[in-house]
Description:
B: mainly alpha, about 70% helix, D: about 500 residues, 20 helices, about 80% helix, globular
Amino acid sequence: xxxxxxxxxxxxxxxxxxxxxxxxxxxxxxxxxxxxxxxxxxxxxxxxxxxxxxxxxxxxxxxxxxxxxxxxxxxxxxxxxxxxxxxxxxxxxxxxxxxxxxxxxxxxxxxxxxxxxxxxxxxxxxxxxxxxxxxxxxxxxxxxxxxxxxxxxxxxxxxxxxxxxxxxxxxxxxxxxxxxxxxxxxxxxxxxxxxxxxxxxxxxxxxxxxxxxxxxxxxxxxxxxxxxxxxxxxxxxxxxxxxxxxxxxxxxxxxxxxxxxxxxxxxxxxxxxxxxxxxxxxxxxxxxxxxxxxxxxxxxxxxxxxxxxxxxxxxxxxxxxxxxxxxxxxxxxxxxxxxxxxxxxxxxxxxxxxxxxxxxxxxxxxxxxxxxxxxxxxxxxxxxxxxxxxxxxxxxxxxxxxxxxxxxxxxxxxxxxxxxxxxxxxxxxxxxxxxxxxxxxxxxxxxxxxxxxxxxxxxxxxxxxxxxxxxxxxxxxxxxxxxxxxxxxxxxxxxxxxxxxxxxxxxxxxxxxxxxxxxxxxxxxxxxxxxxxxxxxxxxxxxxxxxxxxxxxxxxxxxxxxxxxxxxxxxxxxxxxxxxxxxxxxxxxxxxxxxxxxxxxxxxxxxxxxxxxxxxxxxxxxxxxxxxxxxxxxxxxxxxxxxxxxxxxxxxxxxxxxxxxxxxxxxxxxxxxxxxxxxxx
Amino acid sequence: xxxxxxxxxxxxxxxxxxxxxxxxxxxxxxxxxxxxxxxxxxxxxxxxxxxxxxxxxxxxxxxxxxxxxxxxxxxxxxxxxxxxxxxxxxxxxxxxxxxxxxxxxxxxxxxxxxxxxxxxxxxxxxxxxxxxxxxxxxxxxxxxxxxxxxxxxxxxxxxxxxxxxxxxxxxxxxxxxxxxxxxxxxxxxxxxxxxxxxxxxxxxxxxxxxxxxxxxxxxxxxxxxxxxxxxxxxxxxxxxxxxxxxxxxxxxxxxxxxxxxxxxxxxxxxxxxxxxxxxxxxxxxxxxxxxxxxxxxxxxxxxxxxxxxxxxx
Amino acid sequence: xxxxxxxxxxxxxxxxxxxxxxxxxxxxxxxxxxxxxxxxxxxxxxxxxxxxxxxxxxxxxxxxxxxxxxxxxxxxxxxxxxxxxxxxxxxxxxxxxxxxxxxxxxxxxxxxxxxxxxxxxxxxxxxxxxxxxxxxxxxxxxxxxxxxxxxxxxxxxxxxxxxxxxxxxxxxxxxxxxxxxxxxxxxxxxxxxxxxxxxxxxxxxxxxxxxxxxxxxxxxxxxxxxxx
Amino acid sequence: xxxxxxxxxxxxxxxxxxxxxxxxxxxxxxxxxxxxxxxxxxxxxxxxxxxxxxxxxxxxxxxxxxxxxxxxxxxxxxxxxxxxxxxxxxxxxxxxxxxxxxxxxxxxxxxxxxxxxxxxxxxxxxxxxxxxxxxxxxxxxxxxxxxxxxxxxxxxxxxxxxxxxxxxxxxxxxxxxxxxxxxxxxxxxxxxxxxxxxxxxxxxxxxxxxxxxxxxxxxxxxxxxxxxxxxxxxxxxxxxxxxxxxxxxxxxxxxxxxxxxxxxxxxxxxxxxxxxxxxxxxxxxxxxxxxxxxxxxxxxxxxxxxxxxxxxxxxxxxxxxxxxxxxxxxxxxxxxxxxxxxxxxxxxxxxxxxxxxxxxxxxxxxxxxxxxxxxxxxxxxxxxxxxxxxxxxxxxxxxxxxxxxxxxxxxxxxxxxxxxxxxxxxxxxxxxxxxxxxxxxxxxxxxxxxxxxxxxxxxxxxxxxxxxxxxxxxxxxxxxxxxxxxxxxxxxxxxxxxxx
Lengths: 681, 313, 228, 500
């Protein structure tokens, strides 16, 4: 069989994206055309990339090539290997769904917003993401990385007329640039060691790095990638930026853009850096843990649907990092098999989160598209006008809550298993941490379930809470198809995990030198095992089938009863008052109140109730209720830092106060000092 | 394959039959302890049977989620029951889901039940769902820690594997770690099954009810499914508790004698545990909602201590 | 028999004149009248021209005569005349109080002289005994001091015109260094520098005049609109 | 021959413009002269690349790769500015700003135009002379010449603030150049013993460079300190930078752009020439430490002022201080990478900075203010091209990939690591990130936002194409540098390293 031309397909895909970018901007005065171009090229490009990646992975050996660049100092070298390929595949899946979705979604933009510019930035984002995952050279990687940030900035600030979007965009790009700074320094350390900017050269040279340099590089990369991935405490940009972007972009931002941080960590920590310090894995694990728990706790307090989803991205990145941290620990401890399982857990969760988070954002986008609000307190009852969206969102919600038998459960299950395995193989103090981390993961999962009960129920169930919700309508068909693809992916990856897992063989082989997937599958290919003999097993396919089978008798019981004794529709029990209205309904704020009270140490909630009376205090005319939680990191960490910098800068202004005598004096004093210190014998 | 099916069938029967009985036993015992006559051990069967024969009223405001919830609750609870060793160490579906799947499936049931509660638009439903999700969220880590303590001993999260290991070391339950873990899991059991001091299954007072508030709008066959599912869940959790920590009498082969002994010992253990639950229920008053986290925190600490002591002793 | 000038004598003379230049510079620091400052500058420049001539004479470096002549004509003649006319046209004769009061200013000037000597000390090569080296050692110190004190005057004075004077006396230091260290720069360079100084003074003069017109004052400490 | 041509073209076109009466003629002369200049510079570069250093008149004028590079950049900047100037001054004339500046009450502003079109070629002449002079004394004379010509550009508008800026520029520049002259004299003195001659060639670079190792070392130390302070003042290195914000914000845009590119390059060129001598004489260490100190100080000083800036013209000046600091820092880090980084940076800076000024100029002409608080944001609605270019060039100038500055800054960072300055490299990066943040926040708030309802004006072709072409060049340079240009930069870097 002749080899599939991976490179050609890859480059063609890039070319299609670039053409899309140019064509979109060129056709900015014809919105409909721009929309067709934008979605069409994205779809084509993504399909080509998907082909390239799938064949690249199937054919086994990584494809490596260089394009001679006009800048002689730097080479543009690409490598389509298992790790980058996996992320590219994730990207391609999302882009296919998002492109189809956007076809309907962007229609709304026509005549109001510049679709040409949107398409340009969108394609720029796609190109840069693809290049980031394929770059085999630090220089090219950084270019891809920053172009991605810039394109994302443009898209976050796309509604730049709104102050919120502008501010969020700036916060985003500033944090993104800070992470570029860290990466720049990190790469400089590696390049200093190897003398070349090629990733391939790092691995060999890393062995000669002094431990101090190695630690420094690790910290720099962890900071850099951590900011991008949105781990706590570098997360503040994420809940600000992701919600304000157009929803199809939010889906990509949360789905794949923050995953570039995960990609970078896997690439650098497991490959380029050779070995990491022994404490590194632990640090990653703990940071992941904190991100997961705090992420979901903050998510619970949100009633902005998209912000809520954004906080869940932090949580899930935390879960991914727990797996990655475990992989690092196992690797240092010399357990490649366990490291492989942990790595697969992390990477599979990356893929899963990409899919269901993308799905949820698209769902939120449909809701926003239909109701015009992101505030959950104004929604409700949308399941009736928007049944398909509601169903897709529900599947996404189940998946993200880590409930069986969908894909979120599988990757969390693998994470649990690697954490448990960690107890057996590590030293005294750290071993306690693993089960504790497992317990915290359980807390995270349960809180996530609570949060999504809230998100789904308040948005889609019961009565509409306002006119916006009561006039809602279902999204156009292309949007539904886009969501449908991802819904299908959630189910397929959940039930068919054992068929999918072999994809990871190449990756573990590349990063850890061992193909581990065979150890993970038993029971005639239906059952997932945790890798070691006698360890836990699970089969989502059987669980799914079992649920369906058991449904049979239950349905039978109910339908007999219903057929014989009837089923009526009636009003809800309203304590005897006349009729249930939307004002009686439970709100998102009320739903999370119990947790707000329990975790008040963290939230420091503040509430204010003002009652306006007319005559008697028993008959209030108006009641104002205000409640907010303290954004701890913003208030305690970033605001003081910012204030310090600005106060310092303002104070510095006095050195440029317009006095020419002062200016001359600066030079004079410098001269005298230099003469005194520089020349004297 | 056939063996699995037969085994499943048998255990399914056992589950469906024993679960209401256990609820009945608990109710009766409780009544007796409070010097009331009580409804009789079989009352739960009668309730379910009666509900199945009632017509049902579905709220106008509800969507299909409301209708889906009872099925999910029932199916998940039953499926979980098939993953847990009851009378033998071989749970029929043990290979297909260990303790993590058990917790996950129960959570799935709870997820839908909470959605069902909110679907009606009634404040009671929202209140119940909110409280249920909150309490289960903080119960979860304690539960995990306690179970991990056992799982780490067995080196597996597979319940049958755990049971097999436990059977071979019959006096292990006296180890401090096991006792602490048992205590933790017992508290979680109280919380998860909605018993005093966390929830009062017998009240419809809005200030206190949790589970009952969620299912307030259900009627007829739906309610039957939910009640039945809940009692199965209770049975499953109690089974989990006794069989992980006190695996006496679990048969490890398929002779009639061992299975018979296993069944008998199993029932005895369940009744004993039921007595414990009843004692706790009777001796305590229901806690205020915001004191419940403290109780669960105690469970969490116990779990953590259990874990540390596996490592010490 | 041609007359052979005694370099030793030349050095004595030059050192003496250089010291005089330095004294004048310090006197300029304490001076309040603008016209006096200009005259001090003129005398100083004249002395410098003298030094140049002496060096040229004792070392048979004939091209230095041109520099000497230029200095005397331009710096001691044309420039002071130009500046005095400017003062007359503007009509301000007295310097207002400098930023640092006079006694302290003179003290600082003394300190700067000391610094000049310390810096020049590092150039002293005891092993090199040529006349040029010894001369360089002495005059370099004076040149650096002149430069520093001229600079200090610019920092210290408020009037635009006195700043220009400071700049000019600072350049005198440079001139002293150039002729005494290396017997002058190459002639083309020397001419270029003179041309530049001339143009610079004219530019500054225009500026002073326009500032006086626009602000009704020559006090540059009032030029504080452009600031952060 | 070509060297003379390079000097004669601007020297002749200045007085020629002075004699003309029509605006169009002046514009034509100006643009043509600079176009020819750029062509000549390209020919010179080709010659230097092919045959090595070129010299005429007994070595009075001399050009090697380093001079070739700087000539090319100066000529490029001059052409870009002259093209933009046509549109800029037409707009100024239309809106009556020039007439006001002329203070004659007349309807025509031909005097002011004549002033600009005469001064600018003279400034360019001085700049070219700086680079082509073999004699370091003549180099100094020419740098002083650039100051004198540009003082008039700074006070072009004749406002009180212009005079203030011009005064500060002239005085501080004057003091700085005196320092540089002192340094030059001392170099001559330190070379005296080694050369022993009293000819014209005594200050010639081509002679000095070969014998620098034998110079008197203590004198050379003092000389380098003075040169650093002197040419540093001209280049705007902190703490001698104070004149920059004033001068840059008062000069007309093309003049300011020229100050920020051509004149800055000249000052750095002078510094580099002396640095080469000093490192040959004293070893690289001595100069390096001073350069790193001043470079980092300059970048650091720029940070707070960029963060809390109120005026976008002054913002550009601080950015210029930042960039000259970066170049000096690169020189200090040294090594082949440092030199290469510095010259790459100089190249990119000469291409990017003019665009930044042009965008600022467009905005200022449109809004009639240079204060942020008087702008309402949302410029992208009324001036989409300028707005987009402004954002883009802001990203470019703050060193964000994929734009070309990233290449040079990355190289400089690597140079820092190679030289073992780990902590300094971290501080450097921190400064860069902060500057990026501050700069982008200002410009983004200016460009983006709600439509303030300004009328959408059509930009004249001169302005439009100078913006478009420069923007395109910036994007292209991020990915591709013409091979001859890179060879030139490489040669120049070799020269800075002390090669022939």
